[in-house]
Structures are given as C-alpha cells and as structure tokens.
C-alpha cells in the first residue's frame, strides 16, 4: 500500500523514533553486533567500571546522532541526499543498539541525561537543516569528524581485556568515517575552526557528565 503520510502519521513516526532512542533496549539493529563471537580477556572491577563509563558516553553520542538526523530530517530539503541520510541514520540505530547491549553486558545503564542531550541535538539539527543543505551536511561532517576522534581516544583508553567493546567501537569508527566522507561529498560546508572548537567544548561537557551519570 502506498499512500501519502498525513501530519498525524508523521507525528506518530517522530514519537516512535524518540521512544526507540530513549527507552533502553527498544532500538532494533539491522546488522548483528560486531562483538558477536568475540571473547573478552580478563579485566578487574576498576577496569569494568571504566569501560562502563566509556560505553555510556558512546551510547549517549549515538542518542545525539539520532536526534541530529531526526531534527535535520524535519527541516532540511536534501532532495538528492535524503535516502543516504536515512541510511546513515539506520546505521546510527545499529550503533545505539550495539552500545546499549554492551553496556548491559558490563552491568551498566544508559545515561540519565539522555533526554536532555536528545532535545538539544534535535534542536541543533533542526536549525542547521533550516539554514540550508550545505550547512546541514557540514554539520554532519563536523560532528562525525569529532565522533571519530573521540572513538580513537576511547579505543586507546579501553581496558585491554575488553575485546567486545573494542569490536563495537572499531566498526563504529569505520561507519562514522564513511558518514563524514559522504556528507562532504554531498556538498557539506567545511566548518570554520572556531565553530569546531565550540563543538569540542560542548562534547567535553557531555563526556564529563555522562561518564558517571
Ligand atoms: Fe554512530
Ligand atoms: Fe555517524
């Protein structure tokens, strides 16, 4: 059946995405977790707690990615690139679900601050989308660049025995680099250094608070 979605259909869809993003274990991945079949090495309680904090940050990062894509989807034109953006958003759902599952394995929980970060990222995405596609795609590229750096730091910081988290983060790193390239090739503007510095500052605030909360 092919019919135009009404305004209320769209609202229900939006609400469904919000719930799937914010309710733990509600997101369904389209690809199996890269940790499937990977055996952990040894790690002690302090290392487990550290890995939990890092994976909570990565999970919140993916909550922000969902919100960003959703906010942009609402306001951006993106006539030629909408399907690519939807594919990227689907891959972010995989990341979200993989991090969520790994957090649970580590005996951890997702961040209590997620609704706050979801709202802020949704707003930023919607504003960027409304300004225009070049800015909107540039925002995706700049965000993915930052997430990539972030994942590299976390790959360094993970306890050596935590091989299952490592497998997840390595695959995410590969996907995010692909999203960044796509957004630039699709015409995304290269953001000026001060804007990127501002984004780094906001992400520092996020990581500091979410590590524990
Ligand atoms: Fe992601
Ligand atoms: Fe991404």
UniProtKB/TrEMBL annotation:
Keyword tRNA-binding attributed: no
Top-level taxon of the source organism: Bacteria
One of the record's GO cellular component terms: plasma membrane
Residues in the signal sequence: none
Pathway: Cofactor biosynthesis; ubiquinone biosynthesis
Reactions catalysed according to its record: a 5-methoxy-2-methyl-3-(all-trans-polyprenyl)benzene-1,4-diol + AH2 + O2 = a 3-demethylubiquinol + A + H2O
Positions with a binding annotation for Fe cation 1: 62, 92, 95, 176
Entry EC no(s): 1.14.99.60
GO biological process terms, semicolon-separated: ubiquinone biosynthetic process
Protein family per UniProt: Belongs to the COQ7 family.
Protein name per UniProt: 3-demethoxyubiquinol 3-hydroxylase
Organism: Onishia taeanensis
């Amino acid at each position: 059946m092919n019919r135009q979605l009404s305004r209320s259909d769209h609202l229900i869809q939006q609400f469904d995405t919000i719930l799937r993003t914010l309710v733990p274990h509600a997101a369904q991945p389209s690809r199996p977790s890269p940790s499937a079949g990977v055996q952990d090495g040894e790690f002690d309680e302090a290392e487990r707690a550290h890995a939990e904090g890092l994976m909570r940050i990565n999970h919140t990062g993916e909550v922000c990615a969902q919100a960003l894509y959703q906010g942009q989807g609402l306001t951006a034109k993106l006539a030629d690139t909408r399907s690519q953006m939807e594919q990227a958003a689907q891959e972010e759902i995989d990341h979200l679900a993989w991090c969520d599952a790994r957090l649970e394995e580590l005996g951890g929980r997702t961040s209590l601050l997620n609704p706050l970060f979801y709202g802020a990222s949704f707003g930023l995405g919607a504003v960027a989308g409304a300004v225009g596609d070049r800015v909107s795609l540039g925002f995706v590229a700049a965000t993915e660049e930052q997430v990539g750096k972030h994942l590299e730091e976390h790959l360094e910081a993970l306890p050596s025995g935590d091989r299952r988290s490592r497998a997840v983060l390595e695959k995410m790193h590969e996907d995010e680099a692909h999203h960044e390239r796509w957004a630039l090739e699709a015409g995304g503007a290269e953001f000026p250094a001060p804007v990127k510095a501002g984004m780094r500052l906001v992400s520092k605030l996020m990581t500091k608070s979410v590590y524990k909360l």
